[in-house]
Design a protein that fits this description.
Number of helices: 2
Largest sheet: 5 strands, antiparallel
Strand content: 15-25%
Strand order of the largest sheet: 4-3-2-1-5
Helix content: 25-40%
Length: 146
């Protein structure tokens, strides 16, 4: 066998190696993120539910989904561990100080309208003065009128 016949197999094996390597990196990052959980940390589950960690077991985590309501989830169900500021902004609606730099939109339309001093552009059809005929002698309703 020569090298040309083995080349497709070598490329295929190399691609498979790279794909499994990136998947393994993602799994390690997810495990590291789950290790950052401590009681009181805000999290988001893979189902999109936001909760607070109450207790951490070996394979499970107890979450407080509402005040006084606890549920037991698998650690693998945790999609993201959130920072306190982000969790409070999402769950409690606490305002972010950076949001105060955004412009305030008025609740009336007066600031959105233009000055009336600007001349208005009239795109309507202008009628010819009375008694004056078009150059070709035809008026608008006649056959052959433009």
């Amino acid at each position: 066998m020569n090298l040309v016949t083995l080349l497709p197999f070598i490329v295929l094996i190399g691609a498979m190696f790279l794909m499994t390597r990136s998947a393994k990196k993602k799994q390690q990052q997810a495990a590291q993120m789950r290790d950052q959980m401590t009681p009181g940390t805000g999290i988001r589950t893979i189902g999109g539910m936001y909760a607070t960690v109450k207790e951490i077991g070996e394979d499970t985590v107890t979450l407080e989904v509402a005040p006084g309501v606890h549920a037991i989830y698998a650690k693998m169900a945790v999609a993201a561990v959130l920072e306190d500021a982000e969790y409070n902004r999402i769950v409690h609606g606490a305002e972010n100080p950076a949001d105060h730099d955004t412009p305030v939109v008025p609740d009336d339309i007066s600031s959105l309208t233009k000055d009336e001093t600007e001349p208005k552009l009239d795109l309507g059809k202008k009628d010819a003065p009375e008694g004056e005929q078009p150059k070709d002698g035809k008026s608008d309703g006649e056959a052959g009128a433009k």
